[in-house]
Amino acid sequence: MKKAIIAAACLMFSVNALSDAPLKSTYKKLVDKEGNISLPDDYRENWAFLGSYFVEGAPAEGSDKPSFDVHTVYTQPKAAKYYRKHGKFPDGAVILKDVNATKTEVLTTGVARYEGDPKVTFAMVKNTKDRFADNKAWGEGWGWALFTPGNPESQTTDWKGEGFNNCHACHLPVKDQDWVYKQGYKSVIGE
């Protein structure tokens, strides 16, 4: 009986360890030894969709009407599952946000706004082990990256940079939510 309990405990431990394996591979597959983050090529097809939301911006040049971008967010399926169970993202979790322009069209159902041309993709990589302390693209428990369309190399050198590279300023309002706008992901992570 004692051997059966020990065997069951070992099996449960090994199954749990295996279930986290894809997240542990983040630092082998998507982050190099210096902390440079790469964009995975299969996330739109194989990762968990967290949510989409529209963001109103300043009017385009020559227009008095506001512009809108659509933000579409993904994570690894195991990261979403881990979050639902533990209420936080695990080490190695990656959150990817595609930002696209929108197109507006009058349809029989009303005025529709839908995804247009890609603008940028943002990435956050959860870092609970204080890796890359000397790399300014890493801070507050995350690695931060910006990718432009067609370029798999990150453009972020400092997460407190300028313009689109100022991840800090955009995420400061959700510092107490582990820097993540979780309110947009209710259907997947239950927040």
TrEMBL record:
Highest taxon above the source species: Bacteria
UniProt KW keywords: Signal
Cited InterPro entries: Cytochrome_P460, Cytochrome_P460_sp, Knr4/Smi1-like_sf
Keyword 4Fe-4S part of the UniProt annotation: no
One Pfam family of this chain: Cytochrome_P460
Record bears the keyword Phosphoprotein: no
Leader sequence segment: 1-19
Domain Cytochrome P460: 40-181
Protein name: Cytochrome P460 domain-containing protein
